[in-house]
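Hypothesis: this fold can be encoded by more than one sequence.
Test: take the structure tokens below, design a sequence, compare later.
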């Protein structure tokens, strides 16, 4: 069993000078309209509600968080459980629409602290109508952390499960 686990982890180690990318994927229904879900994804307060208290962000920009996310980069400090600094991160969002889905993509990057272990980051969230008034939510995180990628994956996987549970819990309040 240990040999199989080590071989599976070794499959993700960098080869030929490049870093492997790992993914965390979520797909579920939110009990709110697509418009409400889209407004929530564009609301910086929702990030704190969804990530907190596990990875609570605080704005480092003058004036704090905007009322609505824009395409301007935004720096945040992240604390685990509101107490333990784990680093700074740049949030760099873009917004698009494709095949009836509204998409927000974060191609920002960790800047310091333990967060800087992650060397590549692409987080994509999409909302689309289900046909019954509710929302299909899809979330894909792709990241790399060099040799540490296999060790970072369980941490981010667990955080994404928390985020998913929080999104489901909060969605009915967004109407």
């Amino acid at each position: 069993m240990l040999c199989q686990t080590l071989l599976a982890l070794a499959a993700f180690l960098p080869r030929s000078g490049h870093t492997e990318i790992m993914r965390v994927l979520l797909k579920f229904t939110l009990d709110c309209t697509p418009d409400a879900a889209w407004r929530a994804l564009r609301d910086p307060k929702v990030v704190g509600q969804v990530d907190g208290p596990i990875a609570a962000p605080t704005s480092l920009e003058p004036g704090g968080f905007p009322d609505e996310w824009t395409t301007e980069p935004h720096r945040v400090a992240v604390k685990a459980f509101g107490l333990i600094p784990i680093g700074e991160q740049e949030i760099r969002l873009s917004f698009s629409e494709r095949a009836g889905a509204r998409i927000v993509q974060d191609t920002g990057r960790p800047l310091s602290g333990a967060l800087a272990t992650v060397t590549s980051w692409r987080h994509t969230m999409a909302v689309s109508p289900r046909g019954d008034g509710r929302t299909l939510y899809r979330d894909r995180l792709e990241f790399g952390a060099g040799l540490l990628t296999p060790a970072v994956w369980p941490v981010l996987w667990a955080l994404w499960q928390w985020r998913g549970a929080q999104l489901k819990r909060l969605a009915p309040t967004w109407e």
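Strands lie at 22-30, 55-59, 74-80, 84-91, 93-98, 101-106, 109-110, 120-129, 135-144. The first helix runs from residue 2 to 10.
Hypothesis status: open.
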